[in-house]
From TrEMBL:
InterPro entries, alphabetized: N-reg_PII (IPR002187), N-reg_PII-like_a/b (IPR011322), N-reg_PII/ATP_PRibTrfase_C (IPR015867), N-reg_PII_CS (IPR017918), N-reg_PII_urydylation_site (IPR002332)
Similarity comment text for this entry: Belongs to the P(II) protein family.
Keyword presence, Phosphoprotein: yes
Cited SMART domains: P-II (SM00938)
Native source species: Salipiger marinus
Gene Ontology cellular-component terms listed: cytosol
Keyword Phosphoprotein attached: yes
Subunit field text: Homotrimer.
GO annotation (BP), single: regulation of nitrogen utilization
GO MF annotations, alphabetized: ATP binding; enzyme regulator activity
Residue numbers of O-UMP-tyrosine PTMs: 51
UniProt-recorded name of the protein: Nitrogen regulatory protein P-II
UniProt keywords, alphabetically: Nucleotide-binding, Phosphoprotein, Transcription, Transcription regulation
Length: 112
C-alpha cells in the first residue's frame, strides 16, 4: 500500500476529487493548510495598505491506495491540479506498513 500526500491549489480540489473518483479512488482525507515554497509568499494591498502574505492557502490530500494504483493516482493528480503557474503544489508517495478499519477490524487492503 502507498500513502500519497499532495498539496494543491484550493480551487482545484473538486476537479481533482472528481478525477480520482473516476479512476476508482474510494476515499481521501482533505485538510486546509498554509505554506510556502518557491513563491515565498507575496504582498497584497488591502484598503490602501500593503502587507506581506508569508503563507499561501493550500489543500492537502492524503490518499491510501494499493501499490499497483499509486502511479495512476499520482499522474491523475498531476494532470488535474496543474495550472502551469508557480505554486501548483507537490506530491509525495510513502510506503504504508499497515491499515486497519476501526469499525470492523479489517486490515491492509481489506481496510481500504
Amino acid at each position: 500500500m502507498k500513502l500519497i500526500i499532495a498539496t494543491i491549489k484550493p480551487f482545484k480540489l473538486e476537479e481533482v476529487r472528481e478525477a480520482l473518483t473516476a479512476i476508482g479512488v474510494r476515499g481521501m482525507m482533505v485538510t486546509e493548510i498554509k505554506g510556502f515554497g518557491s513563491q515565498s509568499g507575496h504582498t497584497e494591498i488591502y484598503r490602501g495598505a500593503e502587507y506581506a502574505v508569508n503563507f499561501v492557502p493550500k489543500i492537502k490530500l492524503e490518499i491510501v491506495v494499493a501499490a499497483s494504483m499509486a502511479d495512476q493516482v499520482v499522474e491523475t493528480i498531476m494532470k488535474t491540479a496543474q495550472t502551469g503557474k508557480i505554486g501548483d503544489g507537490k506530491i509525495f508517495v510513502l510506503d504504508v506498513l499497515q491499515a486497519v478499519r476501526v469499525r470492523t477490524g479489517e486490515i491492509n487492503a481489506d481496510a481500504l
